[in-house]
């Protein structure tokens, strides 16, 4: 995998994700399934979902890799996208792995993620992380990503 472009800001993360999904040959109703940590990854999942809300896809959130807890990501008027309380069955055409899963201290082993990906043969695998988390934790060699978006939140400035 080689670096294709370097962008900046929130649009630099969202635009290539949307472009990838538009070019992925997906059909109406196909599932994009996001796997991530509750609380920390969900706002980014909702942001990614908002960026692709006009594509005729079903979007689903799975906390960690617990597919039995899968929930729909849907538009909420005047708010944006939100994870619903509705359970959903899974048939992902695109698996989106959030970098929070790779962070130290998260109760998910790389092997569990590999098993989830293997359970959905033919699904494309997208990784979205910050600060080289997949690289730092050795996930680039462990998973066959079709696309990786690696953003930076550096520096973080705080004024009081």
UniProtKB/TrEMBL annotation:
Gene3D superfamilies to which the protein is assigned, alphabetical: 3.40.50.2300
InterPro entries named among the record's database cross-references: UCP004962
Top-level taxonomic group: Archaea
Pfam families: DUF2124
Name under which the protein is recorded: DUF2124 domain-containing protein
Organism: Methanoculleus marisnigri (strain ATCC 35101 / DSM 1498 / JR1)
Lineage of origin: Archaea, Methanobacteriati, Methanobacteriota, Stenosarchaea group, Methanomicrobia
């Amino acid at each position: 995998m080689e670096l294709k472009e370097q962008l900046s800001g929130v649009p630099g993360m969202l635009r290539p994700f949307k472009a990838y999904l538009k070019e992925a040959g997906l059909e109406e109703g196909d599932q994009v399934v996001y796997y991530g940590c509750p609380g920390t990854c969900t706002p980014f999942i909702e942001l990614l979902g908002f960026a692709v809300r006009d594509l005729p896809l079903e979007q689903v959130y799975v906390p960690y890799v617990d597919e039995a807890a899968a929930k729909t990501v849907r538009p909420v008027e005047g708010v944006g996208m939100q994870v619903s309380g509705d359970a959903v069955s899974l048939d992902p055409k695109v698996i989106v792995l959030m970098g929070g899963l790779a962070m130290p201290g998260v109760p998910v082993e790389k092997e569990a993620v590999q098993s989830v990906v293997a359970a959905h043969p033919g699904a494309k695998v997208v990784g979205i992380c910050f600060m080289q988390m997949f690289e730092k934790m050795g996930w680039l060699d462990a998973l066959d990503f079709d696309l990786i978006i690696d953003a930076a939140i550096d520096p973080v400035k705080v004024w009081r």
